[in-house]
Amino acid sequence: MEYRHLGRSGLKVSAISYGNWVTHGSQVEAEQATACVHAALDLGITTFDTADVYANTVAEQILGDALAGQRRESLEIFTKVYFPTGPKGPNDTGLSRKHILEAVEGSLRRLGTDYVDLYQAHRYDHATPLEETMEAFADVVRQGKALYIGVSEWTADQLREGARLARELHIPFVSNQPQYNMLWRVIEPDVVPTSLELGIGQVVFSPIAQGVLTGKYRPGQPVPEGSRATDPQGSQFIRRLVEDEDVLARVQQLLPLAEAEGLTMAQLAIAWVLQNENVASAIVGASRPEQLADNVAAAGHRLSPETMQRIDEVLGEAVQRDGSVVGQASPRERLS
C-alpha cells in the first residue's frame, strides 16, 4: 500500500480507501460487509469513507461494527453530512448549524468512535449561508469530534470561499471528494488547479466508473446479471454509459494497454486516477473480499507516458471534460 498526504495537511491516507456507498446495508449483508472491511485492513487500507445518508444511516452502523476492536489511531474514518436522514423532517437535511451539530452526534454513535478524522459537507448547501456552515464545522473541530474538514462535489469558487472562511476560523479544510475517472474529468479545468493552490487534496469516488472501466459491459451484449447497471436504484451515470455503444467499444480497446502494463482493467483505471498529483486517495467498494486485492495492486504503479497518451487517444470524445458541470450535483432547493 502507498500512503499519501491529504492536501497540504500532515494527515496521511491510504492511496486506496474503502467506501461503502452502495454496498453496506443494501447490496451486501453485514457478515459479508465485515469480511470485506477486514480484507481491506489486511491489505493495508487504513482509510474508510462513509456517509450518514448511505442506506439511511445503516452503512455507518455496519462500518462501525466491522471496525470494532481495531486500534483507532491506526485508522482514518471519514463520514459526511448533508442529505436527508431519519424521518426526513425539515431540519434533517442540509448544512445548517442545527443539522450539522445533531448529525455529527449520530454519526459518532453509529461508528462507535469519539471522533472522525474527516467530516465532509456531502454537497454545497445553497439554502444556508456558508458562514453558518463553516462556523458549525469549526465548533465540531474545536469540540474534538472531527480532526479535519472536507467537502464533496464543490466548485472551484465554492472551495475558494470555504478555504477563506476556514483560514479565518483557524480550522483545517483539507479535501474535496469528487467523481473522477478516465471518462469523467470535469475537475481538471478548474477544481484541481484551485485545490493545488489552496492545499486541498482530492479523495475521489467512482475511479472505475461504477464498473464500466473494468470492461465487463460489452457493446451489443446484455448487461451482466447482478451488475450495478441492473440495480433500479443505481445512478443515471452508469445507465447512460452502458447504453452508449461507442463508450463501451472504446473501453474494450483499453485491454491491451492494461495487459502491456501488467494490470487488469480495474487496476489500470485506478492507477490512472492516482497518477494525478492532486489525488490523495481513490475510493473503492467491494461486495466480495477478493475484489479488494485486485484493486489494491494498483497502488504505487506508475503508468508510462505512452500508456497515458494512448488512453487519451482511445477514449477520445467519450471523455467528459466540461468543468461547468461541477456543482450540478448540489440541489438548488433544500431536499426534504
Automatic annotation (TrEMBL):
<dbReference type="GO" id="GO:0016491">
    <property type="term" value="F:oxidoreductase activity"/>
</dbReference>
<feature type="domain" description="NADP-dependent oxidoreductase">
    <location>
        <begin position="16"/>
        <end position="314"/>
    </location>
</feature>
<dbReference type="InterPro" id="IPR020471">
    <property type="entry name" value="AKR"/>
</dbReference>
<dbReference type="InterPro" id="IPR005399">
    <property type="entry name" value="K_chnl_volt-dep_bsu_KCNAB-rel"/>
</dbReference>
<dbReference type="InterPro" id="IPR036812">
    <property type="entry name" value="NAD(P)_OxRdtase_dom_sf"/>
</dbReference>
<keyword id="KW-0560">Oxidoreductase</keyword>
<protein>
    <submittedName>
        <fullName>Aldo/keto reductase</fullName>
    </submittedName>
</protein>
<comment type="similarity">
    <text>Belongs to the shaker potassium channel beta subunit family.</text>
</comment>
<keyword id="KW-0521">NADP</keyword>
<dbReference type="InterPro" id="IPR023210">
    <property type="entry name" value="NADP_OxRdtase_dom"/>
</dbReference>
<dbReference type="GO" id="GO:0005829">
    <property type="term" value="C:cytosol"/>
</dbReference>
<dbReference type="Pfam" id="PF00248">
    <property type="entry name" value="Aldo_ket_red"/>
</dbReference>
